[in-house]
Amino acid sequence: MGASGSGKTSMRSMIFSNNPASLTSRLGATIDVEQNHVRFLDDLILNLWDCGGQDAFMDSYLSAQRATIFSHVGVLIYVFDVESREMTKDLEYYHDCLLGLSQFSKDASVFLLVHKMDLVRESERTAVLHRKTAELEKASGDITVRVHGTSIYDETLYKAWSSIVNTLIPNVRNLSKHLRIFAEACNATEVILFERTTFLVIATSSGHSDQTVDPLAPHALDTKRYERTSELIKAFKQSCSRLREEFHSLEMELADFTAVLDEMTKNTYILVVVHDPTIETAAIRMNIRIARRKFE
Ligand code: GTP
């Protein structure tokens, strides 16, 4: 949910329909609610409601459609345009949505996206996000909210959506445990599992995808590596489809590391990153092939 023009449909079309950011300016306003059903990991179906943000629709969600809109909500994702000139009105609607949620879906998680961060000068982004976060937390009262700064023009969108989806996957810890075992078997620095269509991070061998890595560790890993990979591979897949080629897998052998990205199950891809020069990519691929059965 969020005001009209805040960017809800744009992010949905990029993440779930693989559209590039450049096409989002052609999207029309959403009329009422548009629903998407995304199959995740075979048996988890994500039912995504994109609620058009024009005032007439918002008023209807909060009155006549209240029970329909706010019942059985797993996650409320509220999008605020960082440059909104109507923040008071945005916050009033947001507050009313929180009341609807507390009435019909008490246990729902709440994610707040301060969107279009690319419009803020880079040097001011951290300060702006801090200020907005404080304002939104205050407006949320006792409700715990997670605030992310996002833009369709960089990897921040993938970070926010991976953490949203992570709260909905019931067995993430279990998956991380299995990925850890697999990483050990491959002598890999890290193993990451991505969802096939969205390329959002499902689980990693290092546990929580938000985990920061000690910069002094032997193979210091970039803290933005997951969302950067999602963004790059999505862009690469789009390039492949423009050439009418299908993306299947990827192998990189660089001076200090090797990476193999390959299909794991029907709905997932696995990325194995190895810093041991004695390990051949063929061996990693063989391990992936053998492990597939376990992950199905
Ligand atoms: P309703 O359907 O009316 O509720 O609007 P919406 O929230 O779905 O907005 P929509 O996704 O249609 O986006 C409105 C405009 O914002 C489009 O022109 C997008 O290209 C633009 N936009 C979306 N995300 C971003 C972003 O991260 N940065 C910038 N600069 N523009 C964005």
UniProtKB/TrEMBL annotation:
UniProt name for this protein: GTP-binding protein
PANTHER family per record: RAS-RELATED GTP BINDING RAG/GTR YEAST, RAS-RELATED GTP-BINDING PROTEIN
Description of how the protein assembles with itself and partners: Component of the GSE complex.
Residues forming coiled coils: 226-253
GO cellular component: fungal-type vacuole membrane; Gtr1-Gtr2 GTPase complex; nucleus
Alphabetical list of Pfam families matching this protein: Gtr1_RagA
The keyword Coiled coil is assigned to this record: yes
UniProt-listed SUPFAM superfamilies: P-loop containing nucleoside triphosphate hydrolases
Source organism: Pisolithus microcarpus 441
